[in-house]
Amino acid sequence: MKILIIGGGEVGFHLARILTRAGHRIIIIDNSPERISELETRLDVYTLLGNGCEAGVLEQAGAFSADVILAVTSNDEVNLLAGYFAKEMGAKRAIVRVQNISRYQFHRGFYQRALKYDYMLSPRELTAQVIIEAVLGHQASVVEDFAGGKIQLRQFKIPARLPWEGKTLSQANLPRDCLIVALIKNQPKREIIIPDGSTMVKEGDEVLILGSPGRVKEIEKTFGKSIERARKVILVGGGGLGLAIAQRLEATEIDLKLIEENKDRADELAEILDQTQIINGNGTDPMLLEELGIKSTDLFISACGKDEKNLLGCQLAKKLGAKKVIALVENPEYVELYESLGIDLAVCPRRLLAEKIIGFINTGVVGSIAVIEEGKAEVIEMRAEEKSPVTKAPLSQVGFPKGAIIGVIVRDGQVLIPTGKDQVKPGDICIVFSFLKSLPQVQKLFAPSNKSK
Amino acid sequence: MNLRLIIKILGQILVFASFSMVVALPWTLGEGEEGKECLKAFFKSMLVGIALGGGLWALGRRASREFFRREGLATVALAWLLIAGIGALPFYFSGFFPGNYLDCYFEAMSGFTTTGATVLDNIEQIPKSLLFWRAFTQWLGGMGIIVLFISIFPALGIEAKLLYQVEVPGIEKKGIMPRIRDTASILWRIYLCFTTWEIFLLLLGGVSFFDACAHTFTTLATGGFSTYTASISGFNSLYVELVIIFFMFLVGVNFSLYAQTFQGNPKALWKNREFLAYLLLLCGAVFLLWLSLIGFKDHHSGLKALREAGFQAVSIMTTTGYTTADFDRWNDFARFFLLGLMFIGGCTGSTGGSIKVMRIMIAIKTAGMELKKFFFPKRVISLKMGKEPVEKEVISLVFGFIVLFIGAFIISTFALLAMGLDPITSMSATIACLGNIGPGLAKVGPTAHYFHLPYPAKALLSFLMVLGRLEVYPLLLLFLSGFWRK
Fold it and tell me: Which is nearest to B173 in space by CA: B185, B157, B161?
């Protein structure tokens, strides 16, 4: 494959190294002459000096015949523009890196259509996901926010002695404003189904629930014992990543203490977060850690911007009695080193990004907001436009595919659980659960019918 | 220094080089007893080569993957020294060559480095298969045997690029394709295309298939080995001379310009400053040489003088080293003018050797720039090739190269003088080997050969050939003690 990488920094370098080993032909564009000569001696790639969002440079790099464009500079605008230009020139697929995906979340569909990229990735988001999975263990493997946090998607395992065990869903008396969009059966074999009123839920099944965060939490409580005793977590570093992690964990029963060094930032965090205890202090201060009860802490996460501080903090926490420690590493080369130094899990944003991109290149699966069961199904956020076919008739009549369901409609900030009688209006944001095979049909329904067609 | 990996790659290259002897085997047929002797010699050589290469390969099989620039430099330098050792074996085992193994090594090194200096005084006596192998070594060495190796064996990654950068002559070491393997294979495809073209044209001129192949191999590599003692004058055909002049000129041009031309950018050639300078220099050289031949009355016929001046000037400047006249008997201006041309060579990225047009251009332009700055020190000038600025690092590399090249020339000249050779022979033998040209003046002139030189001189000259072919730096690094330190 011919792959064009824009930005030869650590991410670009790491990607290029893996991809050249897999036999792909790589062209790297970077605007620093020093970086270019460095890449030139260390990689078997073709390098080009210049700005990746200049049409002339892209043309010279052969963007028109590229199979994949990876725009991975540290500048969002450059990446988005480069991806757009390259796609316009004829590149087959474009993946763009952004710093903070939540900036784009609300209008994700719009951005994707307008800027033509295929996949938007943010190292911070990926890192948060990995850390949250580590915190939650296997309990709730999917926690996703949609529509700017108004809707949450959760995956639960049905425990024994559930009040509505053995009943059909229509008898279970679920609250009105949430919906079980999918049911993952474990017996007799693992499969995903879209449930209707007559579906029975058994112990050991898993359910995917969409609803407002408050409701979802209530349901979680009805599961009672499915949640282990509250786990104690200490998180160091309240930057963008720390905040993202804390926000996701707010919805759970986890006892989270967030240590932030900067007083102003700590105040800011306290305003945003409700359940989390914010502590203004130094994460490498042994006294403070002991005071916070490090001995009985299940998990210590150090995710501030400085590698050495993360390493030191984690080693300290481990020595003081934390059961498990997770450290953030900026430099991809250090991951193995950290793990040999007694860190249970070293998480490197750039490396995660590279792995995700490699996975995309190898499998070709288009990204989604939440990938269920290793990509068999997805939950995506779609925005209905003027003239989208889906707005033409009530849901039962627009020809919605069998393998997909609209879980929630967000209209003017209000959450709505649709029935067959409801009709989608232009401007609505729909959270759709869909099997992979039904995805193209869903996308067609939401696409603004083009005048030229 | 990752010695294991160096040894492994060296082993692979040696096995590859030994296998390439297969091409000479068909020519052992129909040669009677001599043919059988040669067949035996080739089999023995391949056996030795494959055993040695395979042994090294096995020794380095558990090598780790660290491969940096210094490993690349060491691999290429050692590979060239060893390949000539293997390539010399058929000459040695066959027993048709005069002297001992060092003579055969000199001949093989002269082959792979595309020099064309020979120890043979009567080439027609040597069996066809050996002559074919002798020509084929030049063809392999011309575009670079390691570059060919890279384009055929896909297992190498960044190693391939580092090897390529060391072996390819010139200043611009960047590939023309994303993967260096693709760059290597494009260069070789252009080379193959020229090869078939020239063989075809020579066959049209009534040259036998054997001679056409052998001369094509040595023209395209700017090598200069002929199957006749009298070199190209053995054909006595204007047509053959014109075809050969054309191809010598063609391969003296940067091959990446041809690649661009084939990729749909035909103007690249005519916009390239180096190419234009090369063209101008050649025309000027032919003209001056012709004037001197007429002026000093070496020839009475102007046309004959033009024919000889044209062939000799192109052959010497592109560092091929074919001859159609004994230029050592010309007037002194012409003799030393040719000696001067030996320092120029072809374009960067061509198969020609010596200093190369681009380096000379950069050196002269820098000198001019310094001159302008000398009377107005506050002036800021950027050195440009066409419209492209030349980086400061490149300029200092060019000067470093020229100093080392001239330094090697001076030291070696004195060394040969100390061995009792006369000054003109010493000087011309040195530059003819260092610049990969072949024939020099006086005792190593167009009608003479290198056999009569003392053995230390042959060893020194063999070394100069690789030094020139690999453009000085890689080989000299082998002798730097800090280079091998862990």
Answer: B161
